[in-house]
C-alpha cells in the first residue's frame, strides 16, 4: 500500500470530517432560521463528498475493487440537496414570514409561496366543480 | 494513518449528530427541526460510509443509499405537511 | 417514429448508466436490462413531460459543471470561515431578488439548484409567474453584486446551453 495514496485518502477523510462538523456547528451557532439553512448544504456537498471520494480512492486504488456506488450516492445527494433546502425554506416562509418581509418580485405577481400562479384557471375550475 | 483519519472523521460526524440533536430539541420552529433531521440523515450517510471503510467491506453502500433515499422522501413529506397540511393531495 | 420510441434520449442514457452503477458490474445482460429500462421508463413517464428540453452546446455544459464544482469548493471554505470566525452580530444576511431571463422550466430548475448548491446562497422561492428568484445570502455586503454575479456567471451560460 503506497504511502502517498494513504496520505491522499487521509486528507480527504479529514476534510470531509471538518466540513461535516462545521455544517452541524452552524446549525447550533447561527441565530436566524434562514441563516441556519445555509449550514447543511455545506455538510452535504463537501463533507459527504470528501468522505465518498476518500472511500472511492481507498477501494479503487488500495483494495483494487472499483465501485460506482459512491458516485451514485454523491450524485443523488447533489440532486436532492437543493430540493430539500427549497422545501424547508418554503415551509419556513409560509409559517413565519409575511409577504411584506420580503423584497419585491419586480414582477406583477408575488412570490409563489403566497400567490397562485397566473392562468391557473383549470385548477380553479376543478376546485369549483368539486364544490 | 488511515485509521486515525477515520477515527477523526467519525468523531466529527458523531459530534455533528449531537449538535443536530440539540437543534431538534431547541428549534423554535418546525422548519428548524426538519432541517436538523435532514442534516442528521446526511451525517448518518457519512458515518455509514466511514464504517464501511473501517470494516473494509462495501456492503454498507446499499444501506447508505437507502438511508439517503428514505431521508429525502421523509424530508419532503415533512415540509409538505407543514406547507399544505397534507402530504398527497 | 424514433421520437415516439425514445422521447428523451438523455434520460434513457442516464438510466442505463445509473443502472450499471447500481449493479456495479458491466456485463452484457446488465447492459441489455439497463437499456430496456432506459427505453421503458421514459416511454411510460412521457405524458408527464411532454416537451423535450434542448441541450445545445455540450462543451459549454461541461464547462458549466466544472465551474459549479470549483465554486462549490471555494464558497464552502468561505462559508466555513464565516461560521467559525465571524461573530453572529457581524453576519449581514440579505434577501436578493434575481430577475430571470430564462424561460424553460428545466433551465430555471438547474439555476435554482446551482444557487443552492454553492453555499452562501439559498434559493427560497420563485415568483408566481416564474420570472424572478428569491435568493437568501448568508453574508453579503452588496446585494447588487451578488445578483450580477449570479446573472453573469450562471444565467448567461445556462441561456447558451438551453436555448
Automatic annotation (TrEMBL), chain A:
Residues 97-131 are annotated as: Disordered. The chain crosses the membrane at residues 6-28, 40-59, 71-89. It comes from the Bacteria. It holds the Pfam family PhaG_MnhG_YufB. Signal peptide: none annotated. InterPro entries: PhaG_MnhG_YufB. The keyword Membrane applies. Keywords: Membrane, Transmembrane, Transmembrane helix. This is Na+/H+ antiporter subunit G.
From TrEMBL, chain B:
It is a multi-pass membrane protein. It comes from the Bacteria. The chain crosses the membrane at residues 6-22, 34-54, 60-83. It is found in: Cell membrane. Its main location: membrane. Pfam families: MrpF_PhaF. Keywords: Antiport, Cell membrane, Ion transport, Membrane, Transmembrane, Transmembrane helix, Transport. InterPro entries: MrpF/PhaF-like. Belongs to the CPA3 antiporters (TC 2.A.63) subunit F family. NCBIfam families: PRK06161.1. This is K+/H+ antiporter subunit F. It comes from Maritimibacter dapengensis.
From TrEMBL, chain C:
Keywords: Cell membrane, Membrane, Transmembrane, Transmembrane helix. Its main location: membrane. The keyword Membrane applies. It is found in: Cell membrane. It is a multi-pass membrane protein. Belongs to the CPA3 antiporters (TC 2.A.63) subunit E family. This is Na+/H+ antiporter subunit E.
